[in-house]
Specification:
Blueprint lengths: L1 H31 L6 H19 L2 H22 L8 H23 L4 E2 L9 E4 L2 E4 H23 L1 H11 L1 H6 L4 H27 L1 E2 L3 H16 L4 H21 L4 H15 L11
Length: about 290
């Protein structure tokens, strides 16, 4: 029972970190039809910035805030200087963002080196709690809590604010939004900043969850994020959350019983869902 509960909490915690990466990717594609393969690099930079700031200051809160700011700034710079030039052309988007992923990965190696680095857990989140013989890791519960709070915040942003209404309308019909006199380009930049900030937060949270960070984590988690987005449905916030939890739980359980099949089972899960519902679980939904 203890093992199953730990696998469950680990799967949900991992799923929440992946959700932070996937939700921005999903909204950006839904609103702007942009295939952003550089999104994983922002996730990776968030992990490194978070670990670096935490190492120098000892403040985990400051580390998370710094990661979010770094990710948001990267999102704005990438969108304004490069990605905005290839709107409407998926082939160029793929080539450009894959190139950006490689450039950002190599730049990261220049600053922090190519080796795996430790990403320690803050002292107040070390250890575990014992609930009637069931051991629960503190940091995993913290990751779940942060993910839930962010999910609620983004949901309220998308459903209860003017920006959220514009974003959701833009997902359905961007031409109509622009015809109403709304500066859709500014909205695009804001969405990019939001998505990139969330991705960087996910990276900063994922580091201590695994105990280490590496230049490979961007590409590895980028693949998982695309699987999540496809499973949940492009442009769907709820789909990203459900898809991330499915991927996290499936990966945790299969990694325990059949480690070599951990990635393959998520691809298989995506294939099965697409066969049953080609638009994804929540494709075509409003949120």
């Amino acid at each position: 029972m203890d093992t199953f509960v730990n696998l469950l909490t680990n799967g949900i915690a991992t799923g929440m970190a992946i959700f932070l990466l996937a939700v921005g990717l999903s909204i950006v594609f839904g609103l702007m039809s942009v295939l952003n393969f550089a999104h994983g690099a922002v996730f990776m930079w968030g992990a490194y910035v978070g670990a670096w700031v935490f190492g120098y200051t000892g403040s985990f809160a400051l580390a998370l805030i710094s990661a979010i700011l770094a990710g948001a700034i990267m999102g704005v710079v990438l969108e304004r200087t490069t990605i905005s030039k290839v709107y409407g052309n998926h082939i160029l988007q793929m080539l450009l963002t894959v190139g950006l992923m490689l450039v950002l990965s190599e730049l990261l190696k220049v600053l922090w080196g190519p080796n795996i680095l430790p990403s320690p857990t803050p002292k107040f989140l070390e250890g575990s709690w014992d609930f009637g013989g069931i051991i629960l890791i503190k940091y995993r519960l913290f990751t779940i809590l942060v993910g839930a709070v962010v999910a609620l915040g983004v949901y309220l942003l998308l459903t209860r604010t003017r920006l959220g209404i514009i974003v959701r309308a833009g997902v359905e019909n961007p031409e109509m939004v622009q015809a109403l006199g709304i500066d859709i380009k500014r909205v695009f930049t804001m969405v990019f900043a939001l998505g990139s900030g969330l991705a960087a937060l996910g990276g900063a949270m994922m580091g201590p969850l695994g105990g280490a960070i590496s230049p490979a984590m961007g590409l590895d988690n980028q693949l998982l994020a695309f699987i999540v987005v496809v499973i949940g449905g492009l442009g769907s916030f709820v789909g990203s959350l459900v898809g991330a939890l499915l991927v996290g739980l499936t990966g945790a359980l299969v990694s325990w019983f059949v480690p070599e099949a951990a990635l393959a089972v998520n691809v298989l899960l995506m294939a099965v869902i697409l066969l049953l519902k080609p638009t994804g679980l929540f494709g075509g939904g409003s949120v």
